[in-house]
Amino acid sequence: MDTFLSFLSNISWWMWIIIALALVAIRDIIQRKHTISHNFPIVGHIRYMLESIG
Q1: Largest CA distance in the chain
Q2: CB 31 within 8 Å of CB 37
Q3: Which of 2, 16, 25, 44 lies at a C-alpha separation of 20 to 30 Å from 31?
């Protein structure tokens, strides 16, 4: 367990951002509800965020 925790603590901050974006992209590719999010995972989230602003 200590080896796993030390591995996680050695991952740099930019790699955590890439991992988070990859997880969002995988979730969007698998889902079928929103076509824009399915075809353009990260850009689709930006579009919906800007749409909610106004």
Answers
A1: 48
A2: yes
A3: 16
**Given this model, what pLDDT does residue 17 score?**
93
| Alpha-helical segments (H) within 1-54 | 2-9, 13-30, 35-39, 41-53
For residue 20, pLDDT beyond 80: yes
Structure tokens at 12: 């740099």
Other Cβ atoms less than 10 A from the Cβ of 36: the count is: 13
Domain total for the chain?
1
Which pTM does this prediction carry? 0.61
Q: Tell me which residue has tokens 């106004």.
A: 54
